[in-house]
Amino acid sequence: MPQCGVDKTSPEPSDRTIPDDPESPSTQPSDRTGHDDVAQRLADLAREMQRQADAAAVMEIIVSAVAATIPGVEHASINLVHGRRRVVSAAADGQVARRFDDLQQETRQGPCLDAMYEHVTVRVEDLAADGRWPELARRASAELGVASMLCFQLFVDEDDLGALNLLARRPGAFTDESERVGLLFASHAAIAVADAQHLTHITTALGSRDIIGQAKGILMERYKITGDTAFALLAKTSQDTNSKLNEVAEYLTRTGTLGH
Q1: Helices 227-241 & 176-223, crossing angle to 10 degrees?
Q2: Confidence (pTM)
């Protein structure tokens, strides 16, 4: 009887051995490896983007790298909207993506615009069968054969918006995994673009300030006037010629004369 009691309370042999059996099948290591690979690719991409000082260069890197990172992608582009009105195709990996951007602008509808304006991720299984953008669907299907789409908002900077657009010709090309990796990718891309734009603005501002300083120095030396008077002269010329102040200053330093 005591022996039976021991047997009843002991786990079955299979229960003891399966978790520790090195031959037991498990999807966890392969899943972990896949996630590690994606994380490494994103980390490498982030470092490459951060080395760029120009927003245009960053966006070209993004559209070039996306197909190798996000499952299902055949073509990619980045749209920018300035002042929430003017849509610009800022970067594209080829003519298909560029033309799709043009079609969205021409029809004033599409999943990428929705992703930008409504702050959402938009996934399209089959554009031809989706009734949300009928004119775009008709033209894009006929001209380009685009079926699947996945669009992410990249950033909102006051009235300026950005979106990452992913395209494929096969219906249902994008999966939950595509969306998961795409969100991670878009987060890295958004930070890199924002940093590059900020750096570009700073560089432009510093360059303008330097040019204006040089122009003021020329006028002060030539006319023996103060810095304030020289700046006022530049500002008046800017107003009279309907030109930006830094353009007037650049023209003066280049030609030695005021006006155009």
Answers
A1: 120
A2: 0.62
